[in-house]
Amino acid sequence: MKNFFKVSIIALGFVFFVTTNSFALVDAAVWGGYVFKGELEDNNDDPKGGVYGIKGHYNTSLIPLLELGVGAYYQYSKLKIDITNSDEDITRQTMGLDANLILGLPIIHPYVRGTYSFYDKMEVADYSDTEKFKGYGFGAGVEFTVFPFLRIFGEYMYDYTEHDSYIKAQSINLGLKVDI
Q1: Which of 168, 106, 103 is CA-nearest to residue 141?
Q2: Cα–Cα distances in Å, from 125 out to 81, 88, 174?
């Protein structure tokens, strides 16, 4: 809980003390994707499967053409693994802090993204485990303006979380973002 307060205070302080002249004050996005490469500690299986999520940000301009968004995200993953020749599913729910840095060019907007998980729940068959403050992710992507306040995006994300053993996942996501 101590880490949650430290991260929250630093993030909120940084966002609110920087002037707000960004393209949009807030944004919201939904995405779906596919984990194309995964890794479980002490296991040779390569979990793969679908990933879905939502995120929202408060945005501010650091300098002209450079926008910082800080907010929250929720992500759900359903991964297939093969343990002792019987198909098993791993379901994972994670939520936490989400930040992105966007280059605000006229139609195309490349960005980098980082996440820090406050809550991470994993379920496999009859086993369930919940961890707090043990996951993070980072990636890069590009947004395309469709209409003035509507963008589509594609991104690569790397996620890491630690339960009894670590789980790593690399995914490609496609989504829709609304700027307000």
Answers
A1: 103
A2: 11, 7, 29
pLDDT in tens, the chain (180 residues): 667 666 666 665 555 444 444 456 899 999 999 999 988 887 777 889 999 999 999 999 878 889 999 999 999 999 987 655 556 788 999 999 999 999 988 899 999 999 999 999 999 878 889 999 999 999 999 999 998 899 999 999 999 999 888 889 999 999 999 988
CA 168 to chain centre: 13
Q: Using CA atoms, how far apart are residues 17 and 68, in angstroms rounded to an integer?
A: 12
* One-letter identity of residue 48: K
Let me know: does 89 contact 122? Beta carbons within 8 Å: no
Q: 44: left (phi > 0), else alpha (psi -120 to 50), else beta? A: alpha
Structure tokens at 7: 């991260």
Task: Quote the CA–CA distance of 64 and 30 in Å, as a whole number.
Answer: 27
DSSP 12-71: HHHHHTS----S-SEEEEEEEEEEEEEEETT-----EEEEEEEEEEEEEEEETTEEEEEE
Distance CA 96, CA 74 (A): 7
Q: If we measure between CA atoms, which residue out of 129, 130, 151 comes closest to residue 141? A: 151
Q: What is the pTM of this model?
A: 0.82
